[in-house]
Design goal:
By secondary structure, the chain is mainly α. It has 16 helices and no strands.
């Protein structure tokens, strides 16, 4: 039954874009809950603070003229199969220090096909899961460069027009909890996070709603690592903040129930983990849902008790903004 008056965008399966995604289950319930593997060597790059988008990452200092010249040489090295791996690593490290790197990558002959080839070459290793730390490291460096293109105002729309985010969905749809797969999902989420981070998001949100990003993010929000959950819920929060996104999620009971169930499960997990960064996003998601009148009515009955009974008071003691958001949420639900 519809929960809002507007007609929601029609979901378009990413399997219609001639990419071989069929072997991968997309249902939220299909995500494996097996323990993470141990004994793997650490990945040199990307590290969680450097190789992926996270809300609030500080900028790095700009490059000198000589270093810019080296950047151009590294971009040319991407065209050479023998020097490509090293160039991917060096460029991914320097991408935030060179403002025009996205323009250079997009407009240089043959570079975007090279990056996409790095992506698709990994597909055969996804199912059955045979991804090694070395291969994951390499493809994550390519993803970091795609993130650079996705976040630049002059290349973001071109990036969307080419439907490049769809190439990342098979990575988000993996279920293995080994470290190589976890970094692969985290860095892929970083690309989508960079897209939605910008203030003018309407075009991006419309594109994402035409794909299957919401169920993919919901699964990661429920069963991923804390870092992956943080970026996934950030994406969902940005979708909700857009009026079209809020209408889309609240348009049917099934969509609202899917989002509400995952948020509720996260709250119950947060009682144990006390992850304040995640709690901030959860509260903001609930607050935004309460802006929809029919969602507000449903939340009166299903808002998790820990958000009502001061369970998180100590955790939010120094966070006045989130405490105010939680108070506003409860006030919204108490209004008749």
């Amino acid at each position: 039954m519809p929960m809002a008056g507007l007609i929601s965008p029609k979901p378009v399966s990413y399997m219609q874009h001639n990419l071989q995604y069929n072997p991968y289950q997309r249902a939220v319930q299909a995500f494996s809950d097996s323990p993470a593997a141990t004994g793997l060597p650490p990945l040199a790059h990307p590290t969680p603070h450097q190789g992926v988008f996270l809300p609030g990452n500080p900028p790095n200092p700009p490059l000198s003229v000589n270093e810019e010249t080296k950047i151009y040489a590294l971009v040319i090295d991407l065209l050479n199969a023998d020097s490509r791996e090293s160039a991917l690593l060096e460029l991914s490290k320097k991408r935030e220090q060179f403002d025009d790197l996205a323009l250079v990558l997009w407009h240089s002959f043959g570079i975007m096909p090279v990056l996409l080839q790095e992506i698709v070459s990994v597909y055969p290793l996804l199912s059955p899961p045979n991804l090694t730390a070395h291969v994951s490291n390499r493809v994550c460096n390519a993803l970091a460069l795609l993130q650079c293109v996705a976040s630049h105002p002059e290349t973001r729309q071109l990036f969307l027009n080419a439907h490049i985010p769809l190439f990342l969905y098979p990575f988000l749809n993996t279920t293995s909890k080994t470290r190589p797969f976890e970094y692969l999902r985290l860095t892929s989420l970083g690309v989508i996070g960079a897209l939605v981070k910008q203030n003018d998001n309407t075009t991006v949100i419309h594109f994402l709603l035409s794909t299957e990003i919401i169920p993919l993010c919901l699964r990661i929000m429920e069963t991923g690592t804390e870092l992956s959950k943080t970026v996934a819920i950030f994406i969902v929060q940005k979708i909700l903040l857009d009026e079209t996104g809020l209408t889309y999620i609240c348009h049917t009971y099934e969509r609202f129930y899917a989002v509400g169930t995952v948020l509720s499960n996260m709250v119950n997990q947060l009682v144990e983990t006390q992850a304040v960064r995640l709690l901030k996003h959860v509260v903001r998601c609930y607050l935004r849902l309460s802006d929809n009148l029919r969602a507000r009515e449903a939340l009166r009955a299903c808002l998790p008790e820990p958000l009502r009974d001061n369970t998180f008071n100590a955790l939010l003691k120094g966070d006045l903004v989130t405490k105010r958001c939680l108070t506003t949420l409860l006030n919204n639900l108490n209004e008749q």
